[in-house]
């Protein structure tokens, strides 16, 4: 069973998404994720993705909204994808106008500290991309160490299209940090 989360920090509150906050959550997912520009660029992409975001709320994943304490408005989301209970993977997004104010770092610190209260969690994975400087900085500031890099393009796509793809550009990579208990 999912745990209800409500954690207060200095400038943010992180709170589990309930039925009452689904519209706020969808708004945040629509505008605060790394793929947000694609929702405008690709016709129908948002409508295609929206049902999976709603389904995620009913999965074993831990999904919270990040609220600004002063305004009491949702400014982002933070989640743990729970494919492996011992190594949950952080997902985070902050609305563009709320970035560079320390909210993502504070929310991540709060949720990670909460998670490490569970002795079964060995480390937390922070996945980002090589070019996402803000996310890489946060992972490092949290004490994260790079545990692997993996191409953003799947093996089967590479097996079929690899030569053509690699001729044009260097293949971008995900960078996965391990954040360990202190």
Structural account:
There is one protein chain. With about 180 residues, the protein is an alpha+beta fold. About 35% of the residues lie in helices and about 30% in strands. It has helices spanning about 20-30, 35-40, 45-55, 105-115, 135-140, 155-170, and strands at about 5-10, 10-15, 60-70, 75-80, 90-95, 125-130, 145-150, 175-180. An 8-stranded mixed β-sheet has the order 1-2-3-4-5-6-8-7, with helices on both faces.
Extended strand count: 8
Radius of gyration: 17 Å
**% residues in beta strands:** 25-35%
Average pLDDT number = 88
Instruction: Classify the oligomer.
Output: single chain
Unreliable stretches covering 5 or more consecutive residues:
none
Helix content: 25-40%
- Major sheet size, sense and barrel closure: 8 strands, mixed
Structural class category: alpha+beta
Q: Major sheet: order of its strands?
A: 1-2-3-4-5-6-8-7
Q: Which descriptor suits the 3D outline? A: globular
Distance N to C terminus: 27 Å
Helix count? 6
What is the N-to-C succession of helices and strands? EEHHHEEEHEHEHE
Characteristic terms for this protein:
alpha+beta; eight-stranded mixed sheet; 8 strands; 182 residues; globular; 6 helices
Helix-strand blueprint:
Layout: E1 6-8, E2 12-16, H1 22-32, H2 36-41, H3 45-56, E3 62-68, E4 74-81, E5 89-94, H4 103-115, E6 123-129, H5 133-141, E7 145-151, H6 155-168, E8 173-180
Helix pairs in contact: 1-3
